[in-house]
Write a structure and sequence with these properties.
By secondary structure, this protein is α/β, with parallel strands linked by helices. The chain has 2 domains: 153 residues, Rossmann fold (3-Layer(aba) Sandwich), CATH 3.40.50; 121 residues, Rossmann fold (3-Layer(aba) Sandwich), CATH 3.40.50.10700. The strands form 2 sheets. Strands 2-1-3-4 form a 4-stranded parallel sheet. Helix 7 crosses helix 8 and helix 9 packs across helix 10. The radius of gyration is 18 Å and the shape is globular.
C-alpha cells in the first residue's frame, strides 16, 4: 500500500528503534535518571507494571509527565516496575495509519514479552497505549487489566495514600481555574470521564467545562496517526480550534491526560502567546504533593 510520505519517518522508527521518535532503546530510561523507577529485572514481582509509552519516555515535553507520575508512585509507596529497554511501541500509530503488517509485528512481540512478565495490572501514561493493550492485544493472546494513570491517581487519592497540599482559594494564582480536555482514546473510546475530573477536584481546582466535553469532546488534531503528518488544509487548524474553546472558558490551565494532546495543545498555546498553561493531570498532582 502507499502511505503518505510524512509517515515514513515514524514507520522507520517503529521498525528500527521500536518507537516513532527514532530514539535508541538504550536511551529509553534516560527520563528516569535521579528518580526511583525500578525495572522488572530489579523488581520482578510488582503490583503495578507501568507501561510508560514512547512519548513519555522519549519526547522532552512528555517526559515531564512521566517524571511527575514517578514522583506520585513513590510518594504513595506503590510497588511498581517498568519494562525499561524492553518496552517498545504498542503499534497504535501503525494501525491507525493502516500499516497492519507493522502493527502485527509489534503486537506479537509485545504480547510474547508481556505474557512472560505476567503483569498483575498495567497502568499507562498514554490513552493510545491503554486502548491498544486493553482492547486490541486480546486478539493476539494478550489479556491484561489495563488502566490509565488518571484512574490510578484517583484510586491513590481515594484510598488516602497521597497527601496533597490544597490550592489557596482566592489567591488568583495560575492554575486556580482549570479546564479539562478529554483525550479521544480515554473518553469516547474507553468511557473514562469521571476519574480525571475527580482528581482535579481533589486538589481543589475550579473546573470549568468546555461546551464540547466528555462523550461530546473534540479531537486535539493528533488522532488517527495525524501526529506524524501535517493535517490537510481546511479553514482552521484542529488544535487551534480546540485551544480556542479552552481559552474561552477563562481557565488559566488546560489539563490533559495524553502526550499527543499535550503536544498539540502546547503548540496551540505557544502560538496564542503562552498565557494559558498546558499540563498533564499528573503534573498538576505532583506539584501539590506534600513533601
Amino acid at each position: 500500500n502507499t502511505f503518505p510520505k510524512q509517515l515514513e519517518t515514524a514507520f522507520r522508527g517503529m521498525e528500527r528503534t521500536f518507537n516513532p521518535w527514532n530514539i535508541s532503546p538504550a536511551e529509553r530510561m534516560k527520563w528516569a535518571e535521579g528518580l526511583k523507577v525500578p525495572t522488572v529485572e530489579q523488581n520482578p514481582q510488582p503490583d503495578i507494571l507501568w507501561w510508560v509509552g514512547c512519548a513519555p519516555a522519549t519526547d522532552a515535553r512528555a517526559q515531564k509527565t512521566a517524571q511527575a507520575f514517578a514522583k506520585i508512585l513513590d510518594a504513595a509507596g506503590v510497588n511498581f516496575a517498568v519494562l525499561g529497554q524492553r518496552e517498545q511501541c504498542t503499534g497504535d500509530s501503525a494501525r491507525r495509519a493502516g500499516n497492519e503488517y507493522l502493527f502485527n509485528e509489534l503486537a506479537t512481540t509485545n504480547v510474547t514479552m508481556l505474557n512472560e512478565v505476567k503483569p498483575k495490572r498495567i497502568v499507562t501514561t498514554c490513552p493510545h497505549c491503554l486502548h491498544t493493550l486493553k482492547n486490541e492485544y486480546p486478539a493476539f493472546g494478550g489479556n491484561y487489566e489495563v488502566i490509565h494513570h488518571t484512574q490510578f491517581i484517583n484510586e491513590l487519592i481515594g484510598s488516602g495514600r497521597l497527601e496533597l497540599n490544597p490550592v489557596e482559594q482566592g489567591s488568583g494564582g495560575a492554575g486556580e481555574h482549570i479546564t479539562f480536555h478529554d483525550p479521544c482514546y480515554l473518553g469516547r473510546h474507553n468511557k473514562v470521564f469521571a476519574e480525571p475530573r475527580e482528581v482535579l477536584e481533589a486538589v481543589q481546582l475550579n473546573l470549568t467545562e468546555m461546551p464540547r466535553h466528555a462523550a461530546k469532546s473534540f479531537c486535539c488534531g493528533a488522532g488517527g496517526a495525524q501526529m506524524w503528518k501535517e493535517e490537510e488544509h481546511g479553514t482552521q487548524n484542529v488544535n487551534k480550534a480546540r485551544f480556542a474553546e479552552a481559552k474561552a472558558t477563562g481557565a488559566e490551565t488546560l489539563a490533559v491526560g495524553c502526550p499527543f494532546c499535550l503536544t498539540m495543545m502546547n503548540d496551540a498555546a505557544k502560538a496564542d502567546g503562552g498565557n494559558v498553561q498546558v499540563k498533564d493531570v499528573a503534573e498538576i498532582v505532583a506539584e501539590r504533593l506534600k513533601v
